[in-house]
Amino acid sequence: MAAGTLAHLSPLDPKSPEPYYRQIYGRFRNAIASGTLNPGDRIPSARALTQELGLARGTIDAAYGLLAAEGYIQARGQAGTMVSPSLRPRMPVAREQPVAATPYTPSFRPDSILPFQMGLPALDVFPRKIWARLGARAARAMQPIDMTHPAVPGLPALRAGIAAYLHVSRGIDCAPSQVFLTSGYRHTLELVAQALLKPADRVWFENPGYPPTRELLAAMRLAGVAVPVDAEGLVVAEGLRLAPKARAAVVTPAHQSPLCVSLSLPRRLALLDWARRNQSWIVEDDYDGEYRYASRPLPALKSLDRDGRVIYAGTFSKVLFPSLRLAYLVVPEAQVERFERTQAMFAGGSPQLTQAIVADFIAEGHFARHIQRMRRLYAERRDATRIGLERVLGAKVRIDEQPGGMHLILRLQGRRSDRRLVARMREEGLFAEALSDWAVDRDIAPALMVAFTNIDSTATAERLARRILPLM
Amino acid sequence: MAAGTLAHLSPLDPKSPEPYYRQIYGRFRNAIASGTLNPGDRIPSARALTQELGLARGTIDAAYGLLAAEGYIQARGQAGTMVSPSLRPRMPVAREQPVAATPYTPSFRPDSILPFQMGLPALDVFPRKIWARLGARAARAMQPIDMTHPAVPGLPALRAGIAAYLHVSRGIDCAPSQVFLTSGYRHTLELVAQALLKPADRVWFENPGYPPTRELLAAMRLAGVAVPVDAEGLVVAEGLRLAPKARAAVVTPAHQSPLCVSLSLPRRLALLDWARRNQSWIVEDDYDGEYRYASRPLPALKSLDRDGRVIYAGTFSKVLFPSLRLAYLVVPEAQVERFERTQAMFAGGSPQLTQAIVADFIAEGHFARHIQRMRRLYAERRDATRIGLERVLGAKVRIDEQPGGMHLILRLQGRRSDRRLVARMREEGLFAEALSDWAVDRDIAPALMVAFTNIDSTATAERLARRILPLM
To answer: Contact, A263 vs A253, CB < 8 A?
Structure first.
């Protein structure tokens, strides 16, 4: 495109809190999502756009860099820059997976903090003093009206705080009334099923994937369909082949759980297209979308949802801490009433006190600061952990390159059993997880999953690795 | 009986914290429940037992008075005192009730405190300073280990505190491991259904009864069976006629919700007998068992459960406050593992902070003191409300005599529509409930239900009554 195509983009807003590069990035993304720009369309070179907009070259480079990193655009040398031609889903080959009947025991969440334990943020650096101060203040401020039945979907101040946060950090535009508080991911998924699904409905889930998802689907008498994951995330085409008429899909687009790959833009668009045509639901489990280290966090899939098919599921377990028991979902505007009715039927709301503390924590800026601090810290701890493990374990493992997440994936070289190794490690008080346990397909390459969030240095990682070595 | 029967009773314990009259009462109750004493059996006169035990006459009178008030024994003049012959269930006549399809809207729990509003304790007198102090302390005390996933069934200290409390005040013997915390009655009932029932199972519920029970059963795809309630509580014989093979029964034995009558001993035994023979479950919803004014609180039905068929459901919403979102259930020992598995599947546990505060509140004696204070206060407020309403409304209403509860039942004389009156009252900011809305049988006598817990004096009640009068 030249000026002609740029005319389709809405003008930049000098008063927006979003920096220009984010605005440019967002404009292109929306133009692609809405079909204004199509796969293969040429777009101006960074230099041309710099001139056209009268902005610094660095601004345009940052926007284009982000668009390229996420698969939206490609630089083609002489041919210029274009919208990625691969934005149509390809058709990878995969086998149909039978759903495992054996339940995954919730042993991965004991009331303890063990080395490598997944699902825990860095608890040692949580701003507990600030938290205690806000907690004491909220407890003192409690009036009789705060003691009555809380609004079931959540405290208005907290819903508003979440909506504002999602707008800035995840690119989601929603009203506070679309935000529903829950007591955690399991409650979230249950609420979605209660509101939108009925027994025997088919639901895609990721394979490998977070075991509670497939267990919950089965426990709720839904027919789970295991859809494989590859380097671009959920293989949408395979879902289409296995169960084209499924009523819903549960996905982890930001950093696939557990492989940490991001769902590529072509896949995102294919998934949205399927949901639109089929009137199906997409549950976007965005449990750690903030923790991306290669670039700024990707906007949520929900930010591309033009047809009201995406239910966005967030949680405070990873960005604050799990014992808060607070998670939330954002539902399409047209579904607000249905979720209000369903939640009022099955739930009584979350405690006023914890909600009030979190609302204050967000409103006073502690939340944004904490997440930024954690993003930097986790990038450091990830590198430290990787280096420490590689130094000691050497060629016995190959550690995946991945853009984000809260754990590393250690591929076991030589086809050892990851389950046996994990069992031995647990006897030694080391709490890794076996990738095989997260897969329905038993042929998956053996790998350990080890969280790095609570590993404070390379030295610590080396020390831990030396405890693993004799077990391998 | 003379000494011969007494020999069947276990000896009194001079070191027990229970006063002798409670011990005697308990021994007789257990002897009746276990079949050692049968309906129609003679028991010693109070005078004879006084001599035999060497205790003060007042002690025996107190024990016999309690046993008589609860229907266990009867004084028959010359014939002496005997175990009530009516301890076999009678067969009252009732019609089969179709289950209402119209949902009861949860409009009865707005985020406000309106006059007469049901389900709220006296919020004005809650010890908020103590609460705030414990809250601040718990927030300050939070360590990293307290931030991990909490034990799903609940904090050990809280489960232990609840078990000890139930032993003393509700006559329930259970281990802390049998106690499961939930986020409220709805969550409790859902958990029971998830653990023990399957779709299309038939479940008795009380008619009239707390509307969410029948709604939840329907929402969970269970087949609710409306069983009538009379002056002795649930008409068990009618349940046996309507659905003898039902898988469960949900009952409110202490003060039936909403009629406030107590489930009589014959009915209790008949219900337990049915559950035992049929291997069915009894859910005892003991939402306000503490608030009995005529005598000491009745022991829970669960205290008579010899066969592990009763699931006891308690809540902190009435004895502390609703926005805590903490309730609990006690499950039979043989079901502990099943509930552990089920709860781990569907729920993530309650927030650590609120649990820690309640555990401290119980451990430091504030809980027992608060309940005792409230029992006295509610007795006063009930009398004040009754007097104030009767002074103004006079012959237009007849107020039920009832042994406990947190609301009064105002029978409308002259067959006015309670629904229309309630609608008018709500327009005036008065939040009564219509008994008709709580019944599946639409022929129920019209009555208002008005909570007295937040009405502080006769003058207040009169003032409120003067606002009702023109609407009648």
So the answer is: yes
